[in-house]
Fold:
Amino acid sequence: MPIDTPPRPRPGRVLITGGASGLGAAVAESVVADGGEAIVLDRVACRAERVASYLADVSDTRATEAVVRQVVSEHGDLDGVVTAAGIDRCGRLDEVPADEWEKVVAVNLLGTAAVVRAALPSLERVKGRVVTVASSLALRAVSDATAYCASKFGVLGFSRALAAETRGRIGVTTLVPSGMNTHFFDDRDERYKPHDDSRLNDPMAVARAVLFALAQPEGCEVRELVVCHELEESWP
Structure:
């Protein structure tokens, strides 16, 4: 009889999009700190120690799929995928240029789907886990955020459907974070920037929640995980 191969300890080998900064960088740091292997996909090179870095613009979905397949070929099967790449363009629908509006959807939603699509065969071989990153604005809509809300509502719907489609084959968790103290808001007009940084969550705290989801034993699923600062107003 064949001898069962014991599963690799969590978090194992984890692919992280948007891992050169913000939440993605915090997740990569946490994976390494927990003894895992972090592999980052980003538009810019990741300079963190003990992290493999690949260049990819996730809005270019076919090229991104090719990079994901390259990662698997060079590193082996993935135990986890975390889709932390995300952008925003604030403003009313008739104020945001169409190409910028569509870029938000391309990065946040289509990029998420492309990465998971390309990683799926690898994840299925080892019964790995996906953590998609939605937002509190996937649960609550606000003005001047049609692109972001559309993309993050889409990530939530995609993730729920993916969980139903892959039940028993891989794990799927949707992370629903509220605002974090990162550079995400730096290029916004002043009227769209947070005016009280003390109400923004520490990305390392959110990263620990991601590691919690990745560490669940086989058969146990954390399907959705809301993480926010105690004073956050965008949820519920």
The chain has one domain: 13-227.
